[in-house]
Automatic annotation (TrEMBL):
Keywords: Membrane, Transmembrane, Transmembrane helix. Pfam families: ECF_trnsprt. This is Energy-coupling factor transport system substrate-specific component. The chain crosses the membrane at residues 20-41, 53-75, 82-101, 113-137, 173-190. GO terms for molecular function: transmembrane transporter activity.
Length: 200
């Protein structure tokens, strides 16, 4: 009986490792697709952290941070070197998302609270990087709003911060909404006990 139990536990661990490996690859893919969709949808947001948040929520803060890191490196090499500057922001998003939902139930209330908290943190860090390293340039859709504010007489630093917070908050709300839908679909197909999420 003990041998059979050990075999089952070993099989479960192997299954979980393979599952996590595929989910990490899927999460990075979701981030890349999100980046490609932004100019098509023409919205003032990023959508480069949907997979990072998904990984953090399902697999914990360290895997969330890993997905954020790998996404920035891949995007930096293949799409725009500017993503290298925001690697730390991506790591923060994955880690904070994973930590919050390791401690609190994943529901609408915590999603809104997490969106606000992560938006403030990423806006402060991201806006500082954007202002110091790139002169306030963050991305095509975001830059349009910054430019409008500057033309209205707002100084560059303030324009970058206003735009950054607005864009980050919209981005995190959209990202968490997508993640919520994905997890609802997963809940119908899979055993959520394989993940670290506190669900329902």
């Amino acid at each position: 009986m003990d041998d059979r139990l050990r075999d089952l536990q070993k099989d479960r661990k192997s299954y979980k490792k393979v599952l996590y490996r595929y989910l990490i690859i899927l999460s990075i893919g979701i981030n890349i697709i999100g980046v490609e969709l932004v100019p098509i949808l023409n919205i003032p947001t990023f959508l480069n952290a949907v997979g990072t948040i998904l990984a953090g929520v399902l697999m914990g803060p360290f895997i969330g941070a890993l997905v954020g890191f790998l996404t920035s490196i891949i995007l930096g090499f293949f799409i725009d070197p500017g993503y290298f500057y925001f690697t730390f922001v991506s790591i923060l998003v994955g880690f904070i998302s994973g930590y919050i939902f390791k401690e609190y139930t994943f529901n609408i209330k915590t999603i809104i609270s997490a969106s606000i908290f992560i938006s403030v943190i990423t806006a402060i860090v991201g806006n500082t990087i954007s202002y110091m390293a790139l002169g306030g340039v963050a991305g095509d859709q975001i830059d349009k709003i910054t430019q409008i504010l500057i033309e209205k007489g707002v100084n560059v630093f303030l324009a970058v911060n206003i735009t950054g917070f607005f864009a980050n908050f919209l981005d995190k709300l959209l990202s968490f909404a997508i993640v919520f839908l994905v997890i609802m679909l997963m809940d119908n197909k899979m055993d959520m006990q394989d993940f670290q999420i506190r669900w329902k």
